[in-house]
Amino acid sequence: MQDSLGGRCKTVIIATISPALSAVEETISTLTYAEQASGIQNRPVASSLLRTLRYQGSGEVRGDGSNTGQGNCDFAELEMKVAYLSQEVEEAQAALARQYREAKDQAERAQAAEERLSETEDRLESA
């Protein structure tokens, strides 16, 4: 039941019950299902992982008719590595941008300090 619910969307279950005595079993069954469904919490799964699982489940057939499931696994592994490395690149770029901003701020502060020092030296010489 958990696999059929969730995904990238919100899932809403509306449980309709009847107050009639003739529908007691169906009402209990509906309430049991609704209670089980309300306890399900899905975590998002990356699309590349889903594709990997699909590729692992299906074997690739070569031109000579033999099955090459290994090719799909290799492709899936490479696809996962590409996704991982892309994430690493994004993180490295963000870190580099942060370091650049910090270095720029430090350079501006150093220049402002040098200007204040120069002004202070000029005032001391003229005094």
Walkthrough of the structure:
With 127 residues, the chain is mostly helical. The chain has a domain at 1-44. It contains three helices and no strands. Helix 2 (47-57) packs antiparallel against helix 3. The longest helix has 58 residues, at 69-126. The chain is elongated. The termini are far apart.
Lay out the secondary structure.
Layout: H1 24-38, H2 47-57, H3 69-126
Any descriptors?
mainly alpha; elongated; 0% strand; 66% helix; ATP binding; cytoplasm; plus-end-directed microtubule motor activity; 127 residues; P-loop_NTPase
Please sum up the structure shown.
This protein is mainly α and 127 residues long. The chain has helices spanning 24-38, 47-57, 69-126.
Rounded to an integer, what's the Rg over CA atoms? 32 Å
* Beta fraction: under 5%
- The total of beta strands comes to 0
- The portion of residues assigned to helices is 55-70%
Structural class: mainly alpha
Biggest beta sheet summary: none
Mean pLDDT: 76
Give the SSE string: HHH
The low-pLDDT segments are: 61-65
N-C termini distance: 86 Å
- Number of alpha- plus pi-helical segments: 3
Globular, elongated, flat, extended or rod-shaped: what is the shape? elongated
